[in-house]
Specification:
CATH class: Alpha Beta
Shape: globular
Largest sheet: 8 strands, parallel
Number of domains: 1
CATH architecture: Alpha-Beta Barrel
Distance between the termini: 43 Å
Oligomer: single chain
Strand order of the largest sheet: 6-3-2-1-10-9-8-7
CATH topology: TIM Barrel
């Protein structure tokens, strides 16, 4: 059985008979986990083992483990700093910031893969202009150069742990105030402005081998009439064509308010896939997931299936030995330093201390 084009969620901390039936549906290709699915690392490892044991190739398992206010798993995991904290450090010491970012990304990836999660939907490549309610310190900063430098370090660090990265929200969510979870944002800038600013981090990261992208539920009416995640112009012409992206395209959640502009749930899923997405996410709405799966039972895109297989985690760190790894200790030290400089404005630490080196 191949990987299907739909990523679904679960209601609890273990698989029910209904969950097992759902996850065996041929249109399912992955599972996105939330805080409600987590109690302890051991429980999460058992849940993910059960998910992976249902099918071959095994279903993809993803989660939002960005850090800061978007971190699904907390107890038993390192509390990760928000991306904006790396930006604060970058403006003082770019080299230290890049090293810290790579180290913390390795930590995030190693801890997730040790419990069976394949990837996190990160990093955020949006420019934080202080305008977007939903982005804020989830972004590395307002400067194109610092976003590129830090996001590159994040992707590199996660890659060292065997994890693919997902850059979001293409082509950039930082230029609108509205939250696409609640309403449909509109960005009235033209192509030239977007190409010179928000698109640049995506372009540079794609050149460096970024493995996956998630488009924004934002309309850019001077470029295309649909939200980017449902737009052939943005996904096929710009992302695949102009930028030469060869990785996976995940839709953002089809249950978000902004997606309503593209019709009912089945119409949204078809529009996302027709526009160029490889996998459509439907979260927090089991009836809608059922409708989408039934409609896409016979859907087949061999190229997308091959791309999706590359998102499986390649790290094999045993959780019981993770804390013995010097990279883990260094990353935890980096997290502590980042907490200090953000909250207390303390010095960066003794640069001759090996534990402080990134």
């Amino acid at each position: 059985m191949s990987l299907g084009p739909v990523m679904v969620d679960l209601g609890g901390t273990e698989l029910t008979a209904e969950d097992r039936e759902l996850l065996r549906h041929p249109a399912v290709g992955g599972v996105i986990l939330f805080a409600r699915n987590f109690v302890t690392p051991a429980q999460l490892l058992e849940l993910n083992g059960a998910i992976h044991g249902l099918r071959e190739p095994r279903l993809l398992i993803g989660a939002d483990q960005e850090g800061g206010r978007v971190q699904r798993f907390r107890e038993g995991f390192t509390r990760l700093p928000p991306a904006g904290r790396f930006g604060t450090l970058y403006r003082r010491d770019p080299k230290r910031a890049r090293g810290a970012c790579a180290s913390v990304a390795w930590l995030m990836a190693a801890e997730l893969q040790a419990v069976g999660v394949d990837f996190s939907f990160a990093p955020v490549l949006d420019l934080d202009r202080g305008q977007s309610r939903v982005i804020g310190d989830r972004g590395f900063g307002a400067s194109i150069d610092e976003v590129i430098a830090l996001a590159s370090a994040w992707v590199e660090g996660a890659g060292r742990a065997g994890m693919a990265s997902v850059g979001k929200h293409f082509p950039g969510h930082g230029g609108v105030e509205a939250d696409s979870h609640c309403e449909l944002p509109t960005d009235d800038r033209d192509w030239a402005a977007l190409a010179m600013e928000d698109l640049v981090p995506f372009e540079r990261l794609i050149d460096q081998g970024l493995q996956a992208v998630m488009p924004a539920h934002v309309v850019y009416p001077r470029v295309a009439p649909e939200p980017a995640g449902f737009s052939p112009v943005w996904l096929r012409d710009v992302l695949r064509g102009h930028l030469g992206f060869q990785g996976v395209i995940f839709s953002d959640d089809l249950n978000m308010a902004a997606a309503q502009a593209c019709g009912d749930y089945v119409e949204r899923a078809r529009a996302a896939l027709d526009a160029g997405c490889d996998m459509a996410l439907i979260c927090n709405n089991r009836p809608a997931a059922g409708e989408i799966l039934d409609a896409l039972r016979d859907y087949c895109d061999p190229a997308a299936q091959l791309r999706l297989l590359r998102m499986h985690g390649r790290g094999h760190v045993h959780r019981g030995r993770l804390h013995e790894d010097p990279r883990w200790r260094d990353a935890v030290h980096q997290v502590a330093l980042l907490e200090q400089i953000e909250t207390l404005d303390l010095p960066l630490g003794d640069p001759t201390d090996p534990g402080a080196q990134a």
